[in-house]
Design goal:
The protein is of the alpha+beta class. The chain has helices spanning about 110-120, 135-150, 155-175, 195-205, 215-220, 225-235, 240-260, 265-270, 275-285, 290-295, and strands at about 20-25, 30-40, 40-45, 50-55, 60-70, 70-75, 80-85, 90-95, 100-105, 130-135.
Length: about 300
Amino acid sequence: MGAFGLSETHGILLREENRPLASSDGLGWNSVFTSVQREQPYEDGYAARPDHLIILHLNGYVRVDRWMGVSRQSRMIAPGGTFMVPGGMDFRVRLNDPLSTVHLYVRRSVLAEVAQELYKGDPDRLEFLPRIGDADPLIERLILSVRDELLAANPFSKNYIDYVARMIAARLIRNHSSDETRIRPELATPSDMQRKIARVTDFVQSQLHRSMQLEEIAAVVDLSVSQLSNLFRKALGQPPHRFIINLRVARARELLATSDLPIAEIALACGFSHQEHMTRILRREIGLTPAAYRRSIS
């Protein structure tokens, strides 16, 4: 699964009248493509793309008209309302007023991966429902968290984005698909949960000096990324990316306390992209810069 680029979207962001504010194009995100923009009124038709599109309205009320085949719907959409187009569907849309939006595409392969775990039947037969104007507070919060990561330009955001993408996929399957009666209930924690956590911990600690992808961490315990995320949520109450950050911070504190290494070298040894990145994370996590922490324990 390669990086999800702008060329794989419907191209709404490329309209001349729209003003892009940020996009994940070129960031190497695999699970989702996200953009933030100010859109001007327009009407146009778009051919189907394989991936699922969710548009979150950031202001309103705004009237939107949508055509799918001969079916036409018109809604006044409030702030927080969504416009969802499942992969594989052609559509036509008319936006009647200026609008600030977040566009988020979820990879079809991510939906398929999560559906394998949640859906009792053949995941290929699961159909997602188009929406216009519907509010889903959980999806809204998740999309806003992706937007915030995009705007923060966090170099370690990819693992977090992969995690959130699977949370969005699970929500779409459970609440925006055609056969909710065949969704499996969440399974109990497996008996070998602690063993898996221990193996993952050993692996992550041995690789803290570099960037890690969730796929390679999951492979250590023969899980999918979605299964790994569920394991961490059930066993530790936190997602994998948070667990990794905690280990990086712990290693940095240890080296600051027990070595005379320059702070820049400690940052690289703990997997931070540079000294400023470690400084920002430590200030957020412990309320001190690396230099201040070193002085406080000397």
